[in-house]
Amino acid sequence: MKNNKILQALTFLIKKPAVILIPLIFFFAGWWFALPSKKEAAQGSLTTAAAEVWTCSMHPQIRQPNPGLCPICNMDLIPLQVGNGDGGLREITISEQAAALLDLRVSPVLRAPAQVNVKLFGKIDYDERTIVTTTARMSGRLDRLYADFTGTTVSKGDAIAEIYSPELYVAQQELIQAVQSVSSSSSPAVRSLRLNLLAAAREKLHLLELTEQQIAAIETQRKPSNQITLTAQQDGIIVKLNAKQGQYLKTGDPLFGIAKLSSVWLKMEAYESDLPWLRYAQKVSFTVEAIPGKTFYGRIAFIDPQLDPKRRIVKVRVNVDNKDLLLKPGMFANASAEANVALHGRVLSADLAGKWISPMHPEIVKDGPGECDICGMALVPAEEFGFIPSVQATENPILVPASAVLRTGKRAIVYVRIPEKTEPVFEGREIVLGPKTGDYFIVDHGLDAGELVVTRGAYKLDSELQIKARPSMMNPNAGLVERSAINAPQQILAQWPPVLRAFGELEQAIQDDQIEPANSHLNSMKSALANIKTDQLQPKEFALWNEFSMRLENTLAAITSPNHASLRKIRHQMSETGRFTGLPWQAIPATQVDPTWILPLQKTTAAYLQISQALAEDQAKPASQAIPALLEAIATLPEDENKGKLLSATQQLEQTTEIKALREKLPAVSKHLISLIRKHGINQLGNLYVVHCPMADGAKGADWLSPIPKVQNPYFGSGMYSCGDVTDTLSLESKD
Fold first, then answer.
1. Rounded Cα–Cα distance for residues 354 and 511 (Å)
2. Is 284 part of any domain?
């Protein structure tokens, strides 16, 4: 019957326009399949009643299956808050039938090298390093051109032009006269002088780029020639022809450009998004339409350091061996550069493992150190160019299928299947994306390997959250209500100061343009946030904290180099966190910790903790025995008004050995020690916790220090061991 209703409804809706049809189908299907049958409703009611949990409003760590009194403070237990419907703010539960109807598909998140195949397009061009320009070394008239068009193939020594030059005519005359004068020399001294003149005449013709054969031929002549023949300086083709027959030349005028084709360049353009996968000396394969079926190879020799601001491309050049002269300048080429990339952009390359590469000519690759065969420069290990032979599995990036990612503006969201739930439960999660690698994105933060993400149907799940007015892709703050400070989650509030202190240190470092300290404080802020414990939060508070801690972690993870722009992003996210959780969000200003206080405070705190721990374990004797050590440590403290108060309170503690009296006098010691640490010892490390018991000190309430964020009550011991709440986090700078 139910299926017939669905078919009738869908048949009716098919006639509607697609713009109305799709949302109505998803809404109708989600609404219909969410309705339980009477049997399912009854089973759900029984399950809820059976699974009801009772807790204490003062001690949320208490979990009882039945109503009663809190074993710590004797207050009435209250039902555990379970939220409305799904557990998290972005969680959505659907039945298996609805999942099948929505055609949901999931795929695992992988930890593997990012396999990238960058497609590039380019054109074959001359190797500029092989182009030799022939210039006029003397003024004159170009009487004849043998190589009279661009593209002429020449060999070294071939005649390419004839030139008449008065300057050359005079130089020939000087050589002929020098030869004749040497042969007619009458004495050795005169002969030696004339030989020097002959050598100078020969050198002058050498400088005018005449060959040895041409000079020898002139020496045999009786009179100078009117013309001289210019020859090609290398094998190749004429790529530039700057002179015409009959033209008059001046010294230095360019005549010919001759290029070799034994090597060519493949010039390509790479998009900005392709740059993470391209490296110097990386192998590139390409094909040209003129030579079908043949693949050519080369290595990247140059990546332009400047990006074209209008086209957002970078020029890339590949050196290609062309000994068979198959490739011709001007040919178009379709190229492909493949890379397996590990974390931090390191390229896995087995063929370059342990190799040495020329820094100017990447085609020169050798097994060991040495010099480049072309330019003579020292070879460089391949690792210095970003190539590594292998990495551990943990050093590979996290990869998520691209079809799983919903992107809007600067945010990226995936839907993750929660494995602990019996029914299909999916959680929307914001993540920090890296570059795209084929069909995958690299995930910088937010996912772990092995998690299942929705690769088909994620938009449908997100639409369901939008219908329920809960945080979704388009509206991350849907359904959230601003909170005042009085409603902030107490367990988080107690552990929040290290985050604010690290934020203050980061803010100050960025304002002072101190890069290294800023990076250190950024990491401290990440650590302080990650160390916050949530085991005592009610489900609603946990869901709220989980949402905003995720956003804040993503904001911090996306910052690679702290600067003023990133500081504005952090401030915005801290403000949003405070707005909806009630937590204070303004940074605690950076303070200079006096190093003369650190070691004495550490010794004093260590002695105090021995007393506190002993009293929590109902052991009066060890507590009394630790008092002298505390007094000795207090004596090493620098002068301060709270030092005197702490000393007086500890001396009062020394006057008794009874456990009840010790517990009555301990609050004053705790109070003054906490004041000293707040004043002189605070840093962002977060290694001391202030715990408050409302029943201590004659029901007036008292604090004490604990090395862990856990209640171990020294004022009542086993009588009310867990009575109290962590209210603050302090720190003592570690001793380096």
1. 44
2. yes
* Cα R_g (the chain), whole angstroms: 41
Q: Residue 700 CB: number of other CB atoms within 10 A?
A: 9
Residue with structure tokens 């409003």? 57
Q: What is the pLDDT of residue 58?
A: 64
Contact 398, 111 (CB under 8 A): yes
Q: Say which range, 385-389, 427-431, 666-670, has the weakest mean pLDDT.
A: 385-389
* Nearest residue to 621 via CA among 658, 660, 589: 658
In a shared domain, residues 529 and 553: yes
User: What does the pLDDT read at residue 165?
Assistant: 80
**Are 216 and 303 in a shared domain?**
no
Single out the residue in 236, 259, 282 at which a domain terminates: 259
pLDDT at res. 219:
81
Domain at 420, CATH number: 2.40.420.20
Task: Place 149 in a pLDDT band, splitting at 50, 70 and 90.
Answer: confident
Where are the extended beta strands (E) located within 659-722?
A: 688-693, 702-706
Q: Is the pLDDT of residue 681 over 90?
A: no
Answer whether 647's CB lies under 8 Å from 672's CB: no
Given a contact cutoff of 8 angstroms between Cβ atoms, the answer to whether 682 and 591 are in contact is yes
Distance of CA 166 to CAs 39, 134, 142, 163, 262, Å? 115, 20, 12, 10, 38
Judge contact between 61 and 722, C-beta under 8 A.
yes
Q: Which of 211, 235, 259 corresponds to the end of one domain?
A: 259
Beta strand 347-348 pairing with 313-321: unpaired
| Average pLDDT rounded to a whole number, residues 538-554 | 92
Where in the sequence is the domain holding 326, given as residue range(s)?
263-393
The tokens describing 537, both together, are: 């939060």
Q: What angle do CA 359, 335, 288 make, to 5 degrees?
A: 115
Shared domain check, 725 and 600: yes
The answer to the question of residue 151 being in a domain is yes
The DSSP bridge pattern shows strands 296-303 and 313-321 to be antiparallel
Write the DSSP assignment of 256-324 as a string of letters. Answer: EEEE--SEEEEEEEEEGGGGGG--TT-EEEEEETTSTT--EEEEEEEE-SS--TTT-EEEEEEEEE-TT
Q: At what angle do helices 18-34 and 458-467 cross, to 10 degrees?
A: 80
Q: How many domains does the chain have?
A: 6
Predicted confidence (pLDDT) per residue in 313-371, tens digit:
999 999 999 998 899 999 999 999 988 887 776 777 767 777 888 888 888 888 888 88
The model's pTM? 0.68
Which of 17-31, 330-344, 558-572, 698-712 bottoms out in mean pLDDT, i.e. has the lowest?
17-31
pLDDT digit string (tens) for 461-477?
998 888 888 999 889 99
Position with higher pLDDT, 220 vs 307: 307
Clarify whether residues 326 and 437 are in a common domain. Answer: no
Point out which residues pair with 314 in neighbouring strands.
Answer: 270
Closest by Cα among 715, 661, 670, 702 to 688: 670
The DSSP secondary structure of 570-603, one letter per residue, reads HHHHHHHHHHHH----SPPPP----HHHHHHHHH
List the beta bridge partners of residue 555.
none
Confidence of residue 565 (pLDDT cuts 50, 70, 90): very high
> What is the C-alpha separation between 92 and 101, in angstroms, rounded?
16
Which residue is it, tokens 């025995």? 625
